[in-house]
Amino acid sequence: EIIDEFPDAFIIMLTSTADMETVENCLAYGAANYIRKDTPIEEMKKIIKETWAIYKKRG
């Protein structure tokens, strides 16, 4: 629903699930990436920076 209303939204899903089907569904619906809640903070920062760089290149 967010992507429908805000098509330029930059969404990174934060999840506690390891279920790849759920993750794949969210990515298919427009999430730019995902982060598991148990990911160390430094790795979270890296994922966000890398995903943002890709998002910016898309224009």
UniProtKB/TrEMBL annotation:
GO terms for biological process: phosphorelay signal transduction system. InterPro entries: CheY-like_superfamily, Sig_transdc_resp-reg_receiver. Residues 1-52 form the Response regulatory domain. This is Response regulatory domain-containing protein. It comes from marine sediment metagenome.
